[in-house]
Amino acid sequence: MISYILRRMFYAVPILLGVNLLTFLLFFFVNSPDDVAWQICGPRSKTEQREAWKREHGYHLPRIWNDREQGLAQATQTIFFTKSVGLMRFEFGRSDRENVHIGPEIRRRMFPSLAYAIPTFLLALFVEIVIAMLVAYYRGSVFDLAVLLVCVLFMSIAGMFYIIGGQVLFGMWLKLAPISGYAEGLSCWKFLVMPVLIGIISGLGGGIRFTRTVFLEEVGRDYVRTARAKGLSEARVLFVHVLKNAMIPILTSVVFSIPFLFMGSLTTENFFAIPGLGGFTISAIQGQDFAIVRSMVFLGSVLYIVAGVLTDISYVLVDPRVRLEGSGSVLGMLKGFLGILAGGAVLAGLWSLLAEHASRFYKVAEAHWDPDLAQNLFVVLLVLSVAWFLWRALPREPWRTASRQIRANRPALVCLVLLAVYVSIGLIDSVAWKDPMTDAKGGVLHDKEGGVVLQATSRSLLDRAWDFCRGDLKEKSYSAPLADVQFTRNMVQGPDGKSHWEAPPLRRPGAHLLGTDKVGKDVLFVSLKSIRTGLVIGGITTLIAIPFAMLFGILAGYFGGWVDDLIQYVYTTLASIPGILLIVAFVLIFGRGLLQLCIILGITSWTGLCRLTRAETLKLREMDYVKAAEALGSSRLRILFKHVAPNLMHLVLISAVLQFSGLVLAESVLAYVGVGVGAGTSSWGNMINAARLELSREPVILWNLLAAFVFMLGLVLPANLFGDALRDALDPRLRRR
Amino acid sequence: MKPWMPLLGVCFLAVGAGGEGCQPLNCPYPAEEAGRNIYYAAYTEDPKDLDPAVSYNANEYVFLGQIYESPLQYHYLKRPFTLEPLTLAQMPKARLLDRAGKELPADAPDEQVDRVVYDLHLKPGIRYQDHPCFAKTAGGKPRYVPVDPALAGRVWSPEDFPEKATRELTADDYVLAIRRMADPKVPCPIRETLAKYLVGMEESTEAMTQALTAERARRKAAAGTAYNQVLDEKENPVILDPEAYPFPGAEVVDRLTFRIAMKKRYPQILYWLAMPFFSPVPREALDFYAQPALADHNITLNSFPVGTGPYYLQRFDRNRQIVLARNPNYHEDRYPTEGTEEDRAGGLLADAGKRLPFLDKVVFTLDKEPTSVWNKFLQGYYDAAGIPADSFERAVAISIQGSPEVSGELKDKGILLHREAALSTSYIAVNMRDPLVGGVDEAHCKLRQAIGIAIDGEERIQIFLNGRGIPAQGVLPPGIFGHEEGPEAMNAFVYDWDAQAAAPKRKPLAEAKRLLAEAGYPGGIGPDGKQLVIGFDHAMTNSADQQYLDWLVDRLKLLGIHLESRQTDYNRFQEKAHSGNLQMFQWGWNADYPDPENFLFLFYGPNARAGKDGENAANYANPEYDALFHKVENMENSPERLVMIRKLRTMLQHDAPWMNAFHPVTFTLDHAWLRNHKSIQVANNNLKYLSIDAAERVRRRRAWNQAVWWPLWAVLGAGLALLVPSWMAARRRERQGAR
Question: Which among B238, B219, B235 has a CA at the least distance from the CA of B227?
């Protein structure tokens, strides 16, 4: 085992190097040091001032290669080298913006983060286990069903709602705890009660479900039957025998998340003004403080690696059957190391190529791109391919059995119908074209060559349908659902010439089912428009991530050796960089937009599924039918695509559905951090974000928040429930139950 | 159903029964602070740099203004803003000298003036706060330079040092501060501005830069390939002594007198003398903070200022709390005795002539969420607050007379409202170098005038600012010399005078359409038969901004113009502005000092943003304007100056580089227990005038923050009620036979 740990430590070096290089490239191919100087010195700064700042902070050097130097100094007299040397020595240096030493700052901020994270983590674990035990005890009863439903419901609510709602409820209405703040020492508990409670509740759904599954798996084992046969009471079986054994998978899954408690929570810390590392990272990202971001990413990757080792060790400690092999030969280790190094170089090269040329390419593409045409084509293709898949796959096993099972499952059918409604609204909203310009009399305008002059923006089928049914009359500002007058009062000039302050009547009294928002848009319409955004974020991202994950996962699992090493290296490196940073950097290069967001979310989210498919392929590789195919002389490609891939499909489909709902929820956090879909697109995240301020009005404006809540729940809840039904139908291990 | 609920109940019970019984549960402050003379405020952005030569930011001035003292200050109550001496014995007078050093009369022509000299005499007996940098050993050497490494490992703030001392403020400190601004290692944002006027500043910077570059080159050559500037200078920082380089523009005359010499007339220098840039910096502090051992623990001048002001920095925890405490060494300073009748009626003169400051302590807490700040204010945990736009309805109603006053719940709480027109202007402009929308030819001017009419500034202020703004007729905000109201000053290209209401009335949309047609775009269709598309460059990301953008697009749609939102991040936006690639955009300007020059120079051609980093963001260039501005620039306020300012205003109204602008009005709310508050944003040292009725605050806070327990008990009860059926189910299950 010691040799195993040593080997892991050894592998950590190239990963950290890779992470460091990647962070550097991310930051500095997006932002030149000049940009950073602008950002730090402010819009009113002078060139000379910015130059001085760069000199003082060592940003006056070239980024990666110094042509003006001789020999080795060409590489050492660069920003990359000088900054990396400090990092590798854990000397984080000074922050760019506030000019403070990062090391002491991290040490100081760690405690508030832990003071929030540890109680949340432990209490949540405790509560989850207790409830899961009870559920396992009452399994199959109404209670079980109810808890399961509540869990899915909890999982289908965006994290932002918990934070906002909790703050309003406990801090403002019940006045049981301070709204925000922190204190040093033990007196901090007063500020932590509310965030910890909210943290526990928000994670409860997923936690209970996971723990329950583990318990139920244990309950089915032989020793339980034996214990029961001996005449032990059910309570004793559960609380003594099952509990102990179930703790193994629970604890090992928990160990992995322990090191990340240090990194703090991004949103919670900001909302509750807890001065921890999460808030530190967020404000560094927002303020583009490269020194802090780099240090935090470095720290994050170190923790990621430590977490991996800890998890493996904990396996050995709790389960005597597991043995960790250390690679015996030094040669093998060296080979692996070199392979990984080569992989790192390839990765870095690819990225720098991408970063350097992509933005140029993107601009060219954007100029010649007809978004309407492309979008309409894409929608048609998507619909056709889904139809083709259903038509081909459904008559065959195992899909036939699965579809029969789902058809028999009434709630799943309801969910499917709901999802279909959402999807069709999204599709209707995705078919768009431009109208011609008209003159005052309604005639179509032509330009000199006789072509029709088109309006600059296109309108979708949904826009047209809405206008047809309701007319596009907008109000001026807020109005309550079904109200006749505006919610806000305006200065109005009366007939006597005097101004007074009153609520003016609406243009369409009583017509706005869900009220109107700040600029007078109908909230129902905005919510409907947001459906497409949610579907695109969840759907396209999943579509991008799955092929990658499957391809790399299968290749790594099937071929092993250096292919495996390389792919593992790539995804470990990617996974150990906090996702939010990758997203921010990507958005900075390519601009804010729905498509860009989908692509980067795809890049950050393929790693999990890749690991899963790799592990499954490892198992499948040893299956008799694969061996048989090999013996029959099938080509490797044929084996991969005909024998291995189809047997992974159920896994992929299930994770796709679950990932989809996770992504829809994640959008609201991204909007809060400021890297959401951007201002031009309606989205639930944008609605929630706007609603934060509306909550501090009196009387409170709730309809915006509630509409976003209900519409989001309406998509995510059916998706989660349907995902569960699909899992039951497709996973052969579960089918028997 | 949820077994953790009882647990939670117990938890909360423990809170209720805990030692802090008499304080409300949601009070975010320690119990021992209750009833004390402490002022509580929030800050939403952590201060970046508290070095007076570097900081140029209102949220840092909140702290700097109380700790440091510049030579001059604004009179707290008098309006229009009036400067008065703070650490000086009297107001400085300009002396004009010719090349031979002979004194000239005040009205001497510019060509004869070689030097403009101010002699500044300090009040005697002003002492610094107690600080370890002043502590001396028995032999008269600094006690903590060099600092004992063992001690340095233990301390995290100057407060942690066992010994502290003070000393008298001298002229050297001010001169050192001014000379420091020339130091290339100090990123002083106004160096270029000052170097235009102060004699020898440019040369001093030049000489110091050479010395710095030489030293760095030497170190690099000595260390070779592996030289790492950042790591090396962390251990051995390069320190330049600004006193060692000649700088005739700032010199000591005697112990309490220093002299500022300028190359030409610049009466605005007096306003600069009231800003924190001109705060004294003691040499002892520079030597003390230059030690890497202290910098390692973030004990630097950026974080721990050393001043003579009414408060000193007691605690600096930038990510949580900043505490200022009363400076026991503070010099004789009294509450003003003069004020307007309004001030007298408002009780602002009740403390006239009393010794300042009134507060023992000021506690600033970091709160990034505006909602949290607002609600904590309503709960009585902050003593004053600005009003977030969305809470306006709740906070303020317009009385029948039309003047805003606090409403409903707030009125019951005794909260008071203050209004002040900020010395700033927010504007929507075009890049005048842009071929599509820029240029001062008649057609392009008409295009911009048409857009100016279409962007309904009144509606914008109504919806997005809840009326907290004044639509601008010219560029000067109220309170600045040259700001005028009435039909003469009105922007006649956008408004008509409504004699009945005695106010400007926006021209109808038809007029805008007519202008647009004359500009060559009838109905928004250009000569090429295509719709006019204008790009609006911005870096707005949040959803409130989005709502504003939608509104803006809709306004221009009324003219048939398509406004294309071009969103970039802030860096790209800066870059675009720098390279002159913006088309239409919006920006704002906060005045440094209340002088019209500080606004009119925003249109001065050589001050263009593109290529020159100037403040003329619209890149407006009009030789006629530039010539006239040159005359207005350094004049004292006089009727002649006013005439010229009017001409400049008319030019800008016609050329319309800014198509829409407004002057923001800030509303602040005070709790009833806060006394002596008068808004004066141009001044930074107002906290010394405030006082608190702490007993009243305790009473009200308690009344407003009664915890509501019953929902918790209800949940707890429901949980208990569930126990019975589950217990029965369990028993049934246990008795069941095998299945």
Answer: B219
